[in-house]
């Protein structure tokens, strides 16, 4: 039984006592807080489990942090409904993020340029600290 299952057993009845609008607002606040945590991880160049990103190849003359603009809130959108809330990386940034997140092959430059296989660098996800944060968030913010 995962921590999400244990959360669902006690949080689900509490959420159903809220109106659909209150539930949507609550889930949106939770998603915004989780977005902030993921942005901080991306800024630290860490995966959700805390390990560092796979490094870039040493062909660059000036080493820079990866995903410098991706950590901005305008790229990571929050969508909420009365039953769920999601974080998604949109647009061109979303395509680039998916390539890095899953370790896919993509063009280095515009097509028909050279292509390369990128190492997997998970960007969005939950850590054990996030599970604790979600439990605490429910306890402190769910007012009936």
Commentary on this structure:
This protein has 144 residues and is of the alpha+beta class. It has a domain at 3-53 and 67-89 and 124-141. It is 44% helix and 11% strand. It contains four helices and four strands; from the N terminus they run H-H-E-E-H-E-E-H. The protein has helices spanning 3-16, 20-43, 91-102, 128-141; strands at residues 76-80, 85-89, 105-107, 115-117. The strands form two sheets. Strands 1-2 form a two-stranded antiparallel sheet. A two-stranded antiparallel sheet has the order 3-4. Helix 2 (20-43) packs antiparallel against helix 4. It starts with a helix and ends with a helix. 11% of the residues are buried. The model has no long low-confidence stretch (mean pLDDT 87).
Features:
elongated, 4 strands, 144 residues, two-stranded antiparallel ribbon, 11% strand, 44% helix, alpha+beta
């Amino acid at each position: 039984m995962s921590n999400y299952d244990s959360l669902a057993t006690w949080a689900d009845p509490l959420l159903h006592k809220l109106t659909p609008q209150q539930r949507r607002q609550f889930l949106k606040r939770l998603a915004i807080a989780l977005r902030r945590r993921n942005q901080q991880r991306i800024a630290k160049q860490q995966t959700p489990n805390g390990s560092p990103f796979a490094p870039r190849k040493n062909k660059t003359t000036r080493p820079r942090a990866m995903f410098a603009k991706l950590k901005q809130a305008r790229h990571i959108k929050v969508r909420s409904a009365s039953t769920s809330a999601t974080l998604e990386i949109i647009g061109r940034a979303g395509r680039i993020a998916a390539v890095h997140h899953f370790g896919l092959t993509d063009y280095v430059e515009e097509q028909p340029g050279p292509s390369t296989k990128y190492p997997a660098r998970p960007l969005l996800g939950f850590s054990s600290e996030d599970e604790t944060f979600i439990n605490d968030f429910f306890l402190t913010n769910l007012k009936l």
